[in-house]
Write a structure and sequence with these properties.
Blueprint lengths: L2 E6 L14 E5 L2 E9 L11 E6 L6 E9 L13 H4 L3 E9 L10 E3 L6
Antiparallel strand pairs: 1-2, 3-6, 4-5, 4-7, 5-6
Length: 118
């Protein structure tokens, strides 16, 4: 596994608080993107499935990513889930790992088609 130092958060001789990140590393072999999906789409997001991902910036070509994590609990929960409309506000985090590609750079937007997951 390779990586690069993205940032150093403290200078030599400075005190770091317990648990504070001292260095931020970036995995240079793969990218990870995080998407948020509705509860109604959860059945499409299964860890291990491969999904097509394309750059939202207009680059041509798709990259195939692998779903590596699907949250067990909703990331956003309304204060009271009483109606169907309230339930539709629930979103779940899904993390997809992509092989390193010239089509993507950190911070770019991407389109993920869960309907084509294999």
């Amino acid at each position: 596994m390779g990586g690069e130092v993205e940032s150093v958060n403290f200078e030599v001789g400075e005190f770091a608080a317990l648990g504070a990140p001292v260095v931020t590393l970036v995995d240079t072999e793969a990218y990870r993107i995080t998407i948020y999906i509705r509860e109604t789409d959860l059945e499409k997001a299964v860890a291990g499935k491969r999904v097509p991902v394309e750059s939202a910036g207009g680059s041509t070509g798709d990259v195939e990513g692998t779903i590596v994590h699907v949250a067990e609990e909703a990331m956003y929960t309304p204060s009271a889930v009483v109606t169907v409309a309230d339930r539709e506000k629930l979103v779940f985090e899904v993390v997809i790992e992509l092989p390193r590609s010239d089509l993507f750079k950190p911070g770019m937007l991407a389109k993920v088609d869960l309907d084509k997951a294999e």
